[in-house]
Amino acid sequence: MSVQIRLQQSKFKEANRGGKWHARTVNTGDVTTKEIAAEIQEETTFTRGEVEGFITELVDVIARNLRSGHTVVIDGLGRFRLSVESTPVDDPKDFNIARNVTGVKLKFVPAGRRDSDSNKKVDDFGAGVHVKWFEE
Q1: Which is it for strands 72-74 and 78-86: parallel, antiparallel or unpaired?
Q2: Model confidence over 63-103: pLDDT tens digits?
Q3: What is the DSSP letter of 18?
Q4: Residue 81: CA atoms inside 13 Å, Cβ hemisphere, count?
Q5: For residue 81, what are the contacts with CB-CB under 8 A and spacing of at least 6?
């Protein structure tokens, strides 16, 4: 399996990044819940409808737990949690949730492991992926 890339010039103005070229992955399409369900159906004894129902329920359960303040850990997939964005204040007494909280975001950390040699985190989803140039 391969991920395709093309070069893109940075639009940042900082001297260390501005105008420099970097690799950017190319999205070669979307895969829908129905398509995922069909693939799982081919590999298991579950019907496509059962798989779609399971995925729908999984999304509902993840959302419900996130809204309750939990971090949701799905082994082999990763960790989901909510975080807030806010405008800073000089004095904690001046902080007002309605005024200073500007949004809620979903954070996702993919499942992975630590490389024993470099001690860097290696994402499981990137293991074994080859990179090649995108051909239009």
Answers
A1: antiparallel
A2: 999 999 999 999 999 999 999 999 999 999 999 999 999 99
A3: T
A4: 9
A5: 66, 70, 71, 72, 106, 107
